[in-house]
Amino acid sequence: MGALALGVVQLVAPKGTLPHRTVGWTWVALMLIVAVSSFWIHEMRWIGPFGPIHLLSLYVLWALPTGVLSAHRHVVPRHASTMRGLFFGGLVLAGLFTLWPGRIMHQVVFGP
Fold this sequence. Notes:
By secondary structure, the protein is an all-alpha fold. Helices cover 72% and strands 0% of the residues. It has one domain. It is built from 5 helices and no strands. The model has no long low-confidence stretch (mean pLDDT 88).
């Protein structure tokens, strides 16, 4: 939830400022924790113990350093598009997967 909230802040706040960089590093750390921790979730299995959420996690683990390096190299368009892709693909899409029928969050939101 923290990564989602900070992601929204990053999308609407001024770019290139010290707060943007500080919040950005915090967001990157949270995204890294979320992506790595997902490899212990095995409810939706497609290939062995892995499912679609793991594909998103691999994308996040590839895209995080890509986005950070783009910012470091001042390639702003690539940085911006990579980070937006991480937010919408790695958080919003992954969040929608939590609502898949049979998952706990589906029962919480929609009932048994």
